[in-house]
């Protein structure tokens, strides 16, 4: 690991100020991706701004149908929240199946979506839920936030503060996990919203990262049942093919996981 300067931020404003003062600074939340990358000398930030002690970035609030999750809230906290389980059970289920207990108790929702790993779970959930990502500067819709593999709409120094979601009428998530890493080889989040529309987002399969599956959305909008997907064929031309699975295999997994997600949503 290369030498780096450590800063412990006390507030959102303090964190942004510290990061802005150093061109090569990185925010440190759970550290589940950044620290291993630094240990492998694949990343060498000049400064680390630790967000773990910023109270304004933590916590879950549910009021009516509105959900707000602080960016520094851990996966374990989302998974164990009775309020999340009641308002959006699909999201609680998603969080409960991220990595292993160590990852869930250290990793945060803000860190996960800022990194936007193409096999991470949260991007699919937030895109299907039509979430809003709130930063220290602005609010960004999930469709606009996730811009490509390991790429987001965040500007240099911009800090995610919270995620806001309008509770759906139904939600479900299913993934086929890599047996070693538990990352999604293919994961599908399905959400039926109050206006009757359905959003379906896929992670772990797209060559450009998380994406929405419009054919499945249209089928479920007409008939929200697993059987509605029997005639769907998923195009594999833009899907990943690697040592874990071919693009054709992932295309089949998209359909299978979508059916399981719908069944879980009830």
Question: How does this structure look, described?
Answer:
It is built from 11 helices and 14 strands. It is an alpha+beta fold and 266 residues long. The protein folds into 3 domains: 5-50, Uridine Diphospho-n-acetylenolpyruvylglucosamine Reductase, domain 2 (2-Layer Sandwich), CATH 3.30.43; 55-166, Uridine Diphospho-n-acetylenolpyruvylglucosamine Reductase, domain 3, CATH 3.30.465; 170-265, Enolase-like, domain 1 (2-Layer Sandwich). A hairpin with a 6-residue loop joins strand 11 (170-177) and strand 12. The longest helix is centred in the last third of the chain and has 19 residues, at 247-265. The mean pLDDT is 96.
Average pLDDT number:
96
Spell out the helices and strands N to C.
EHEHEEEHHHHHHEEHEEEEEEEHH
- Overall radius of gyration: 18 Å
Can you count the helices? 11
- Roughly what fraction of the amino acids lie in strands? 15-25%
Helix content: 25-40%
User: Which word captures the global form?
Assistant: globular
Number of strands: 14
Q: How far apart are the first and last residues' alpha carbons, in Å?
A: 48 Å
- Main-sheet strand order equals 4-5-10-6-7
Helices and strands: which structural class?
A: alpha+beta
CATH topology group of the largest domain:
Uridine Diphospho-n-acetylenolpyruvylglucosamine Reductase, domain 3
- What's the CATH class of the largest domain, please? Alpha Beta
Instruction: Indicate the CATH architecture of the largest domain.
Output: 2-Layer Sandwich
Largest sheet: 5 strands, antiparallel
Sequence stretches where pLDDT stays below 50 over 5 or more residues = none
Counted up, domains total 3
């Amino acid at each position: 690991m290369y030498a780096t300067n450590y800063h412990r931020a006390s507030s959102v404003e303090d964190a942004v100020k510290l990061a802005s003062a150093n061109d090569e600074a990185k925010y440190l939340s759970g550290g589940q991706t950044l620290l291993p990358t630094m240990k492998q000398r694949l990343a060498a930030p000049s400064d680390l701004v630790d967000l773990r002690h910023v109270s304004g970035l933590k916590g879950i609030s549910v009021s009516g149908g509105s959900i707000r999750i602080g960016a520094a809230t851990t996966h374990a906290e989302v998974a164990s929240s009775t309020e999340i389980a009641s308002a959006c059970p699909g999201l609680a289920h998603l969080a409960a199946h991220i990595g292993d207990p160590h990852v869930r108790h250290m990793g945060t929702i803000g860190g996960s979506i800022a990194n936007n790993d193409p096999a991470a779970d949260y991007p699919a959930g937030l895109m299907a839920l039509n979430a809003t990502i709130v930063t220290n500067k602005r609010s960004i819709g999930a469709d606009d936030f996730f811009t490509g593999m390991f790429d987001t709409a965040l500007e240099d120094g911009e800090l995610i503060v919270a995620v806001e979601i309008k509770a759906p009428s139904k939600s479900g998530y299913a993934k086929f996990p890599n047996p070693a890493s538990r990352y999604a080889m293919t994961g599908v989040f399905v959400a039926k919203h109050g206006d009757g529309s359905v959003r379906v987002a896929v992670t772990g399969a797209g060559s450009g990262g998380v994406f929405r599956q419009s054919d499945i959305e249209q089928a479920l909008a007409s008939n929200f049942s697993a059987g509605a997907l029997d005639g769907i064929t998923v195009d594999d031309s833009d899907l990943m093919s690697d040592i874990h699975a071919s693009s054709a295999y992932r295309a089949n997994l998209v359909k299978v996981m979508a059916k399981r997600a719908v069944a879980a949503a009830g």
